[in-house]
Each structure stands twice: as C-alpha cells, then as structure tokens.
C-alpha cells in the first residue's frame, strides 16, 4: 500500500512517456487498493482483539478515525498547495504528499515490528485452529455473514464519498462555491469526526454496536435531503453546517461501530478474511462508484439534487435493514460483566 502511494509521487508526466503515464497511475492505484484491502482488516483486528473486555467498541473505532485524520491532512495540504502558482503546483506541488507518505509507511512498519500476534490468534495457533485456506472456509460456511457485511458497508461508504468527494465538484461547478471554501468545510467536518468517532465507539460499549449503527443510518436517511438543501443556500455558514452535521456528527455513528460490528459477526478462524472481504467489496461496489453515480444523477435530474439525496437515503436504508435482520446484538453486557470480574 505504501509503495504504491509513494511511487505515484515519482510518476513521469504524459508529456514525457505518453499514455504509459495514466496506465502506470491506474496500476499504482490498484496496488494501493489491494494493499489497503489487507491492511485495514489487520489494523482493526489488532485494536479489537487487544482491547480490554468492555472496551472493544472504543478500541475498534480508533483505526476508523485514521480515515478522517488522513482526509484532514490531505485537505489542508491541498489548501496550502493552492497558494502555489498553477504551473508550480502541476509540475511538482502535487507530488509532495505522495513522496512524504514514505515516512508514514516507515513509522507504521516500525510500530508493527514491535507488536506480537493478538492473544486470541495466538490461542488459535496453540490449539491448531488456524485455517489453512480462510477465504475458502469463509465462502463455504459464512456466505450469509459475508453478504450481510457487504450490505452493512453500503450506507457508510456511499454517504462518505458523497459528502467528502462528490461535494468538491458539485459545490464548485454547480453551486458556485470556491474551492477553498469547499475544502475548508470538508476539513472542518473531518476534524470534528476525528474527535467524535472514538466517542461513538465508546458509547457503543454501553449502548451496543447495533443500536448506535442503526441510529446513524436513520440519521443519514433523515439528513440526506436537508444536507443538499443547505448547500443550495450558497452560504459559507450553510456549507460548513452541512459538512459538520453530515461528516462530523452523523457519519461517525456508523463508521465508528462498523469495524467492531463486522468483527463480531465472524469466528476468529475466518475473522480477518470475513471483515476484509465484506468491507472491501462493499466499498468497491458503492464507495468507489458514488461520485460517478452522483454525477450521473445530477445530469439526469437537470442539475437538481433530489435523486442524489434519494440515493444516499436508499443505500443507508439497505445498511439499516441488513443490520436489523442480519446482525445479532453484541454481548456488551457480558463483556462488562467479564471486565468487572477481572
């Protein structure tokens, strides 16, 4: 994942190597995606399985806050880079964060080198319970759980890409906001989310993952239309308010509980493969395509936002139904009891 990211910063331009430049960019993006597919599940399970009893919701939410913290840093960088003359930004300015990411990769590898396997996985190894072909076992014995995990991901990933990616083009080209205003609104929402995601994870340890997630889905459904109405007011205050409520207050309810909710759906033997498979397939189907879908719906509705709001509400409803009927309530009370006994 880190190699693909860093090498993007060294890509030759189209003027230098022609069509090979975009081809190489797509390949490196694929390397990023494949790397992320394996890295996310490992990061989540390290936090989840090392968590003390009764605090798995909080610990499992910490890796999720890395998404908004990274988005905050990238948005701030683009904001600063926008101060460069266009020629300098296009020639070398955009490359800087990709090259600097090598430092984050080295830091991550150094941290990982000092962490042992989790106690739960070590116990599996001792008992000879580690699956030799976990993906095969997963698809043979947990097809219902995998499908549920994919559907659970829909609302969380689709809404995020609409609020944080599609918004940039929609607000600047259709509504006339400046790029600086739009990026600032997203950055403020990301900053708030970086704080609220762990708080939502902590709340889920008391109220239950399922309940918090369902409240978040209901919030996304209810706020999908008001979100776009606020944007169309063409007010700096309104776009800030819309981003803070959507990205900073409602979306954290689903993303903070998503990782723990998925982890608790699978047995340890297939947990890594189960959460990664569901998370990445759901993300690819709905998250990666959301900005394109938003653009198509906007054109089909002659520049109006009604169908886009319906799309966000629909995918959030899919996740609401999937969790309502496909996910059992985690044993939060039992975890707290174990913690008290310890």
What key attributes describe this structure?
342 residues; mainly alpha; 82% helix
Coarse shape: globular
Secondary-structure element string: HHHHHHHHHHHHHHHH
Mean of all residue-level pLDDT scores: 87
Supply the helix-strand structural class. mainly alpha
Poorly predicted regions are 332-342
The level of helicity is: over 70%
State which percent range the strand residues make up. Answer: under 5%
Query: Gyration radius, to the nearest Å?
Result: 21 Å
Tell me the number of helical segments per DSSP (H or I, 4 or more residues long). Answer: 16
Q: How many beta-strand elements?
A: 0
Briefly say what this structure is.
With 342 residues, this protein is mainly α. The protein is 82% helix and 0% strand.
